[in-house]
User: What shape does this take?
Amino acid sequence: MSIAPLTEDQRDALQEVLNIAMGQAGNSLARILDAFVELSVPRIRFVEVSMVTSTIEEFVPCSGEVTAVRQAFFDDLRGEALIIFDQNGCQDIADLMGYDDHLDVQAQQELLLDVSNVLVGAILNGVTNTLGTHLSYSAPSIMAERTLLNQIITPENVPWTHSALLEVNYSLKDRDFRSHLLLFMAEEAIEALRKAVDDFVESF
Amino acid sequence: MATPITIVDDSTMSRKLMIRALPKNWDVEISQAQNGQEAMEAYHQGKADIMFLDLTMPVMDGYQVLETLQKTGLNSFVIVVSADIQPKAQERVMQMGAMAFLKKPVNTEEVTAVLTEYGII
Assistant: This one.
């Protein structure tokens, strides 16, 4: 099975939907961290599962260790949200949120889960509000901790043949904090997404 | 006489959404630009008495358009239309001479409110 690429209209529309969602999530993050958040240009890619790791490496330019949080979403679109934090930036979040002391592992994990939950909730809400779809999502969980980027996913364990990868990232000026949010969707979800985007484009 | 306005956004869909959100009874001559450079060309051709300006664009972004207009004393009524809805982004563009800030996705009520506030419609 192969996946048809997006048409120019579909890509343009999806890019804009992500842009709006990213802005809303970025605003939530800015409020939590009380800092100005720099937004990226959303990236969209359809790849074979064997290419997932190299695509993540391309999207996330980080040579050191990362901590990754995952959150599943389902209903109209099914997939996984993955939030990747540069290890150096993790203590930065604690700093920004006013924790004076060095956090222990558990407290830092909780903080990353909270931040992830806000980002994923805001971005999925942004997408569903614009596209008129409905999504539910699971609680976030730590997927990998202090791990090299190319080891957070084992493609052999992914039961899909193709995946859509949608990426946005957030950084702070003069700070180490940087997080990448990736949405992964399997074959069926890609077609559902395509249909939602088509319906949306046709609605005006 | 129709008011010349230019919609500046690199996304085709976003420009369509913006055009759809304009008040129905507003007499306008609409031009479109895909980046800041095209927006400045439209301005110099007299097509941009009012500009609906996105911020993140290739070639020349919205901040650069505001800077150019401000530095050269050019006079276009700029309404920024942005997905970056942080209060600080808003503050920054207002300091750079934008007259109003609309959050994406735009809706007719908010566009009408801004235009009414400034006596444009």
